[in-house]
């Protein structure tokens, strides 16, 4: 690799803008008065090489301009995704193609056809995020290594042009140079500057660590993105739904048969006037009494299976703990978390019917059908018997007009009973649904009369296990540390040097020049040194030829 | 307690208003340096008293409700206004420039007035909000947004100072657009207040997008009526809509927007008539002594301070709470996405500034756009794009 030797004797890597040690410009560019101090004039790979395809890719992604464009494109794309709801938020039982067209007309149709209904999961959105990730890595590497080198190698004694071309600069003649230097040194140390001396020159520096802030926060972001990607690795992430009725014990899905859950009770409460804090009365009145939810809670018992899994055999369970799962208070155990997400009140559980004589209304006994596990025959004694020929838990008439069921959930139970009595030993057939009785074979003597409904509440829980969370957490913490490090501190340097019988003072900061100027004022007070002039401001004023609005300061 | 709380908020509002005039006086006072004269001293003292009073509102309301008053649109927006004043007070003590007060306080006043147009009752918490993360997440996010909003105020000062008003240009046009938006907010407040004082109410029966009959109550005369909407018997004497909207458009909200625009336009035109020049041109003399580099630095400094706070509150705390309440830390809910958009925007802002040297005017325009995004997330996402966060609306 080529190297460039400066007149001070320091050997710089090829591509360096000004000497790492003394600051003398290596590539003479006198068009600008001030030195460009970004990245300390260090040799960045992207600015130096552009031959191979790798160089070109590297240079593309190392550009902040490209990075900002990627951010802006992602920003616009994200905004487009909020115009209409994403597919995950539309009702689950409709076809998305029809839904978008029905709800939002031609715009919705176009939205769907462009694939914006699943925008955040689309390949091109993923590609954008991935590009930002690549840009983060390359941008950081391209800058942080040379910057580190430049800050490590920086010398105390600087070339006079380096000082002259700093934004804050002054040259003064003082009576007693040594006194001024020792006074300044003392004050700088008091202000927590790290002071280095060489040949009677001073370099005072503080907050250098803030220069690493951007790179630290980029590392945090990369860790976060990696964590988000790991979600797609099997086994890292479990997301299941568990619907569980009161009194039921069920295997928790996603746990591989290890854990079971019993739902003792589901509780749903609303805010009511008179019962709750009376400051809420006005708000309750506005939306209606009893319409604001207060509690969704499932009282559960968690069980663990003991012994091996034997197919077809009832599992042996050991109680682990009792817990009340509420929104915001999931049950956590062994990396699993169970969340309250949904519920269904009063799902039919058992239905009772009386076998009666239609003429006399005399009852011959009660049949109670367990809607989840119906018996096929119910013996009422004295020769009275009821057989359940067919059962439709979620009954409707299909296209051919035949009774059928939509699901196994007893939302709308219907039954075909055969009533066997001493006087009708062959039995009478009756079709019974809610508020509806059909007698397919003519006029029956007997009837199954509705005698009561027992309901249960069903709780909808989400089962989660996410091994990526801690990685995301670490990424987030590192990101915040980097952000604070870079934003709440700044890197200030002050050079004090003897040049041709004068004392030259120059200062630089990576941000917050106002703060640095204030600090300089305090430091030089009474030393006889001239307050450094802000050459950037002078330059700007000169360029504008005074103030264009006529106002003067 | 609830009564006391409202009174304290009212006092705070009045004090901010008085404070604004004092900061105005500080600039007019030619004898002394604006940063140290008596006017600005009084201005900042009054502002601080106002802030303490609003803090009193916040605390008493918290005690009365039993939960942090950041659970609905009124409470959140008011809190945002309070944080804006708080951020201003901090920045004032760093940089000591009165003109910042002259611009930040009116923005805070507008924000609080806007908030008061929404239902102000103390609402009980639905289960998803019953968590300590409510106040942790919401207050940090609001504080971050408020600090970022100070950057908007500084950017606005910069633009008013620097944009050449001697001839019309793209810059004068967009600067007037900003002024018009601020005045329209005032228009919304004025129109809503006027109709609410007049107790205007018109009940409509209409047909919603699922072809169901529904009822809607307008509190402003219906310029645009709901889909197939007809006035109910009790409101038969009310204003008949000029046009009816299709079912997918929320006609009531659109009607409010139209009224606000009318109010804003009337106010704007009146001001133009009185001033006989652009609003920004009329404001220019107020900022003529402003140090541009310092204003630019304040604008940037506010972003530098606010960005980490915003990240913590609106993204990190938000994700932690979402993981607890909604089972997932991120779900592409519109509010979440717009928080991400805000974050991306300010990230781009910082990169443009630090690496591409976008200082001064460019940076000031960006600060304005950033504030527009924050306001969009606060207003439009709550009221227009319904999502999981929509209960934060009315």
TrEMBL record, chain A:
Q: Which GO terms describe its cellular component?
A: membrane
Q: Indicate where this protein resides in the cell.
A: Membrane
How this chain sits in the membrane, per its record, is: Multi-pass membrane protein
Coiled-coil regions listed = none
Q: What range(s) does the ResB-like domain occupy?
A: 64-428, 442-520
Main localization is membrane
User: What keywords is this UniProt entry annotated with?
Assistant: Cytochrome c-type biogenesis, Membrane, Transmembrane, Transmembrane helix
Q: InterPro entries annotated for this entry? A: Cyt_c_bgen_Ccs1/CcsB/ResB, ResB-like_domain
Instruction: State which residue ranges cross the membrane.
Output: 66-84, 123-145, 215-233, 467-489
In the record, biological process GO terms are: cytochrome complex assembly
Q: Which PANTHER family match?
A: CYTOCHROME C BIOGENESIS PROTEIN CCS1, CHLOROPLASTIC
Q: What is this protein called?
A: Cytochrome c biogenesis protein
- What is the organism field in this record? Thermaerobacillus caldiproteolyticus
UniProtKB/TrEMBL annotation, chain B:
Going by the UniProt record, its keywords in alphabetical order are: Cytochrome c-type biogenesis, Membrane, Transmembrane, Transmembrane helix
Q: Is the keyword Transmembrane in the record?
A: yes
Q: How does it sit in the membrane?
A: Multi-pass membrane protein
Q: Pfam families of this UniProt entry?
A: Cytochrom_C_asm
Task: Give the GO biological process terms.
Answer: cytochrome complex assembly
Subcellular location, in the record's words? Membrane
* Residue ranges annotated for the Cytochrome c assembly protein domain, each copy included: 71-180, 268-389
Q: Transmembrane ranges?
A: 6-27, 39-64, 76-95, 100-118, 138-160, 172-198, 257-275, 302-325, 337-354, 366-388
State a single Gene Ontology molecular function: heme binding
Look up the domain of life of the source: Bacteria
Q: What is its main location?
A: membrane
Q: Can you quote a single GO CC term?
A: plasma membrane
Q: What is this protein called?
A: Cytochrome c-type biogenesis protein CcsB
Q: State the organism named in the record.
A: Thermaerobacillus caldiproteolyticus
